[in-house]
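Job type: complex structure
Entries:
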Amino acid sequence: MKKFFSVADVTNLKEIVAEALSQKANPNALEELGKHKTLGLVFLNPSLRTRLSTQKAAMNLGMNVMVMNMDKDGWALETRDGVVMNGTTVEHIREAAAVMGEYCDILGLRSFPSLKDKEADYSEDLFNKFIKYCAVPVVSLESATRHPLQSLTDLITITEYKKKDKPKVVLAWAPHVKALPQAVPNSFAEWMSKAQEENLLDFTIAQPAGYELSEEFTNGATITNNLEEALQDADFVYVKNWSSFKEYGEVYPVNENWMMDNEKLKITNDAKIMHCLPVRRDLELSSEILDGPNSLVIKEASNRVWAAQVVLKRMLESLKSK
Amino acid sequence: MKKFFSVADVTNLKEIVAEALSQKANPNALEELGKHKTLGLVFLNPSLRTRLSTQKAAMNLGMNVMVMNMDKDGWALETRDGVVMNGTTVEHIREAAAVMGEYCDILGLRSFPSLKDKEADYSEDLFNKFIKYCAVPVVSLESATRHPLQSLTDLITITEYKKKDKPKVVLAWAPHVKALPQAVPNSFAEWMSKAQEENLLDFTIAQPAGYELSEEFTNGATITNNLEEALQDADFVYVKNWSSFKEYGEVYPVNENWMMDNEKLKITNDAKIMHCLPVRRDLELSSEILDGPNSLVIKEASNRVWAAQVVLKRMLESLKSK
Amino acid sequence: MKKFFSVADVTNLKEIVAEALSQKANPNALEELGKHKTLGLVFLNPSLRTRLSTQKAAMNLGMNVMVMNMDKDGWALETRDGVVMNGTTVEHIREAAAVMGEYCDILGLRSFPSLKDKEADYSEDLFNKFIKYCAVPVVSLESATRHPLQSLTDLITITEYKKKDKPKVVLAWAPHVKALPQAVPNSFAEWMSKAQEENLLDFTIAQPAGYELSEEFTNGATITNNLEEALQDADFVYVKNWSSFKEYGEVYPVNENWMMDNEKLKITNDAKIMHCLPVRRDLELSSEILDGPNSLVIKEASNRVWAAQVVLKRMLESLKSK
């Protein structure tokens, strides 16, 4: 594996999930694989779960880890070519990425969207250039439009906890006080759509009108504005807020009650409730659910390690075979 | 050992000091004990000595270490239950602590007091909830009311440098320009009081009127407002500033000279002088003393490693015996 | 080796370069040398390349690494003696350095100049006191006046890519938008001057009038204000901006074109182009050159690892022989 940026970088979902679960069963079995290899984690935006779980995964594989926390202010990267750099950008991504590629065998990168310029965000220009110029395998730690380690984690968790062959999985929009990126729901949608193609599950998305995700991610999904309809017979409900894609980054007022709670849980097939965290209690998701037996959110966060570990494992193997 | 928060978490002071000194004599003897174990250090407030010494201790034991520097602004935790999280707090401690407990085998936490709300600070609500929800052993890296790794260090240092069976130890208030927490003196007082109970030393506290510590920490200590009287025959003088407990967080004007200097040293039994650092030279403690033969401050800081290492060792042993 | 602060700390340049290149050929050959040894990296100013490459070098040698990012605001150090510390400085360098020396076997320190007070900057007071009080070997990660790891890297790179016994090396001033320190050019000049003494190369400096470096660094170099003259027959051109030493920290307007580009490259002997990075594209150095076959900038950055590794190796050896 040379890059892990979207679901397109994985050929067989069932296989990678099985591989991740086998790592989970025996976390240190491959600690020789990463010996003398260095993982560099570059955060242009803050991170808690992603940093810790990826660091842990790398250490399980015997790798060295170097973390670079560089917010965009402190380290303004130029991404355009042909520009005289006499302004505020201090380094061009061509040099920045190439140099990090010299010190690290594998790189991780996190970079959030502006939520102001749809075209720029969805072009994933920064990420693509980073991948191009660093010359080593790159794992996305969340980009402007996707969070693939989270989505792989979610599929692992669904696989672990499903009680039937083909569970019904619902992505349900929820309220929030801030305008959030579409990266997590985009990514979840593209992974679940592919899982549906592979016959692993049925996938439905429920969101208020105006909050439709970009169609490139939701191909094959059942889409509805009716939450109660969507929750019918659901085995897993993935609760998440996002801002509008259409009116890019906007937050429409929503009058109906979209918070997931015990009342709504009753409509489901005793569904397991998922969330990528951090979660706003009693705004996105009720405390009752979070503290009750249907919540998977902590187990899900815990599984971040195995998603990262299987990706790093595959990248290390591709380095060895060079 | 499941938690290390106060002196109550240690049953026998003599024993733990002896164990720490045996670690010091052979720092890497137990490097297999921590293999494949991860220590997570969570700093809600800045740290230098505590971070470095605890990290070093963990590495001596063969552990992996992950450091999380999160100031309270960047990562505002909700600690109250039953609150709709539609304000500035971004994550509830229930989830935050639980997730970190998934990635780490042992956690350290540092969190300073507000110095504005005595009841809130002294309830140690944040710490107690963190311990409760993370589900792994927790070592305090300094809380609102205590700094137990510092106090254990101090007892180790006194044990190493004492010239008689039962030395006289004095905690002496000193001037400062800022309002400082009571955590270090509280903790020192509770450890020395217990050491006095175990017949290891005699313990006296000297502070100006109005600077009395909370009685729950000073049980059994001789307490005086007369510094010269306290210094009589002292074998160790622990110099430290703190703000008022009674008028919580206030700083009263003090007219007498409370800075420890060579004149006052003459009253003592050629006492060794201690301070937890950082120290304000010629305000709390004279340069003369700091640069002279009676100062233990660097040796004391150095011993932070062995205090941390014996605590981590005991926690690792309790993990193994599970 | 007890310190690595300037070229004076190396007796034989040819030898240390050869040693560095032998480490490069076999990066992990000495991974037992640093076992149980800790490197502490103290950054009073930000760092990317220096931190990563030094960390990588230390890990190659089997060392543990602890990084301390402390900007000057957060951790205001007092360096003067005899001062009552009742102001904004929170810790004296005597204690700060001594304590770090207790936790680490080798320390690295980065501290930039103020560019406001020439005498204070060029006294290297902070660095000298840090070296004095920490009591362990210290490697400079860039000081007010020098960046020796960069200069050693540059000599390694020149040695690797030279096509004749005694290449012509030119340090060429280039434009910038900010007032930059003289540390990199000072250091490059003092290393190249010594390399010239050792008959390894010929060294020329070209800068506009008013931008002369301090003579203590340029001893033996050919110095000119005529860039084209300097570039004649050049085998290596080291492009770098710096502010005035004479009118300390000032930036004079320069009307001639001092940016290195393909036109100027034609004057040279098909010279290899170097730069310490980060580089302002099309202001200091043309994109054409940076993206073309004459640029060594990425290889040069990559070599930072081997400069750091040979220095750490020598320091570790001096620890063992104690």
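Summary: Residues 297-320 of chain B form the longest helix (24 residues). Residues 97 and 130 of chain B are 6 Å apart (CA to CA).
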